[in-house]
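Changelog note: in this version the structure field was regenerated for every chain. One regenerated record is shown below for reference.
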Amino acid sequence: MKKISFSLQILIASALGILAGILFGESMGNVSFLGTIFLRLIQMSVVLLVMSAIIESVGSIEPADIGKIGIKALVLFVLTTVVSAVMGVLMVNIIKPGVGITGVLPGKYEGQIFSISIPQLITEFFPKNVIQSMVEGNMVQVIVFSIFFGLAISLTRHSEGSKRVYALAVDFGKVIMEIIKMVMRFAPVGVFALLGSITGTIGVGVIVPLVKFLAATFITCIAILMLNLGIVSAYARVNPLKVLYKLKNTIIVSIATTSSAISLPVQMEDCEKKLGISPRISRLVNSLAMSLNSDGLAVTIAISCLMIAQFYGIELSLQQQIVIVAVSTLSTLGNLLVPGGALVAVSIALNMTGLPLEGIALIAGVDWFAGIARTFLNVVDDVLCTFFIAVSEKEFNRDIFDKNT
């Protein structure tokens, strides 16, 4: 008997949760504790998972490559991710997926939303005690420490001590990843309980924001792709349609698998044999991009945070929305390559902003569909960043590109 995929399990659990909420109403609140347990289990290992993922990614960079190419790559990653988060925020303000639901009262929220000035925000990026940051779940500070830790390993990578520390970080990350995988097996039960409780207490109109959420995600991802493709094609002086055609195998694999990791080998092959990017640039930048550049995930996080805020009737100022852009960018670091990884990343962002974590149930049921647009944008934008760097470093072979392959 063929095993039901994780995505299908989530879809079935979501449908059953909504149906149970309609049939049993407020009594579904009695099973909400199962959803709370699921959310706690996600939070349990998130700090350690993010630390190990970032340390492994940054620590893997060769010191010789941290120079010009590495800086170019990181600047491009940050720039494209920030632009993606900004466009996600703009799209939510236009479509408003979390408001205007006829006959449905906004969800109740009794927590405290973040309120911080921009100078305070920048200062709070830097930890004074990383252990305290870990205990408090301050993910921004944990991420900043992890970047420094990874850079220190990279710069001393040839010493035996650093090699052992790096190997320990990699092995530790694998163990934490297994914990996350175990927790995600409980996801269908958690999603069923959360959506059943929300639907039972709020009403069937909860389905409306899901459709609007998907519309906002797909429109934003397509707009970002067209923008980046246009800029890079103009810089390289190539036909943008020809670029997409040469990436057809990468695009098909990314859509079919919704996995950046699975797409990576095909992505590198297309870069080297069809676009004419040198193997040195292709293998370094594409590998880094898989973990450190996730424009589609930034879109998902930004749209999710604002939609959840709208659904719970939380008014966000312009300054707070700017903070969400920063949080969306930081939450993509390490790019969790596990089933449901986007849900974990969104939960990190909700923790960082103080928005209600329960709102994650609103997007869980359609995350697989959002994952199609998210992975497609992630993978193609990784290639475009690699292409841009190859052209700037004069490691782009136009003869290969001009071949009809």
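Spot check on this record: The chain is about 75% helix and 0% strand. The domain at 6-402 is CATH 1.10.3860.10 (Proton glutamate symport protein).
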